[in-house]
Amino acid sequence: MASEREQVFGFAPPQDVPIPYLQRIRDYYQALGYGTPYRWAHYAEVPFQPLAKPLSRCRVAIVTTAAPFQPGKGDQRAGAPYNAAAKFYSVYSGDTARDPDLRISHVAIDRQHTTGEDMGTYFPLAQLRRAVATGDVGALASRFHGAPTNRSHRTTLETDGPELVRRCQADGVDAAILVPNCPVCHQSLGLAARALEQSGIATVLMGCAKDIVEHIGVPRFLFSDFPLGNAAGRPKDADSQSFTLDLALSLLEAAPAPRTTVQSPLRWSDDPDWKLDYCNIERLSPEEIEKRRAEFDQGKAQAKTLRDEAGVGEQSISSPPAP
């Protein structure tokens, strides 16, 4: 019947909707044998800071969950498997006058459908420079900032968020563009966006996990229905990246109230079946489930070692929220 309706009425296939990450991840980890599902951050009230002046006179910062390349920390190339050794656990900053080498091998992007080969898909520095050159944005902040992907609400709210606020205030920014990659990245930067707004800095979050961001509650959200790791546009497609940033900037300037979501009209593929794969336990054999449990436990132990070395704690939870 669905196929007939698609043909007769032009309906999209039933799977052609935003991926339900919250339910997928919950089912995935319960099937892997973990206990009580992770509790994602959720707020009823959302802060909102309108731009105090036209965007053409604003200084804008980028906040990312991408990690600086770290030689000796394992495979961090495009298409590399998940690499917990490349994680970072403290806020860092970089010079926007230089072209940094940022990677996303340390987070759970959609490795089945994307590779992270083009930094422009997850770090819109080049496009923001263009917007400054055309006069659409007043100035680029002297630094960009990296936020850890941390499943601890307490650490994000009491340590990382305030540190991001402090650095953005020190840079004199009027607004910030936040670009997450994995499911937990969307939570971390969603919470960071709230902290920045409460401090008087307007924000827009560019992301691919619609349900997670809207569950948290953020002021402005540009949703791209793309595989995780492509919140700033398609790889090797400058027009797509330019269009996506322009949408985000328009939303930053024109959002009428908190919880404003705009969905990009761009499509990843004419075939929406890619949306059925990420963390979909129904598509895994018992052998694959067992293998993934072992791989996750190994990565978890490696990450704990890194956190201990960095002196960073993490809240106790019953099950992990993302692969």
Major pleated sheet: 8 strands, mixed
Beginning-to-end CA distance, first to last residue: 35 Å
Query: Total number of β-strand segments?
Result: 10
Assembly state? single chain
Mean pLDDT: 92
Keywords:
oxidoreductase activity, acting on X-H and Y-H to form an X-Y bond, with a disulfide as acceptor, 8 helices, single chain, disordered C terminus, alpha/beta, 323 residues, Glycine reductase, 12% strand, two-stranded antiparallel ribbon
Summarize the structure.
This protein is an alpha/beta fold. It has one domain. It contains 8 helices and 10 strands.
What does this structure look like?
The protein is an alpha/beta fold. The chain has one domain (14-313). It has eight helices and ten strands. The protein has helices spanning 2-9, 21-31, 125-133, 153-170, 183-198, 210-216, 238-254, 286-310; strands at 59-64, 67-68, 92-95, 102-103, 139-140, 143-146, 175-179, 202-207, 220-223, 260-263. Strand 8 (202-207), helix 6 and strand 9 (220-223) form a beta-alpha-beta unit. Helix 4 packs across helix 5. The radius of gyration is 19 Å and the shape is globular. The model is unreliable at 313-323 (pLDDT under 50).
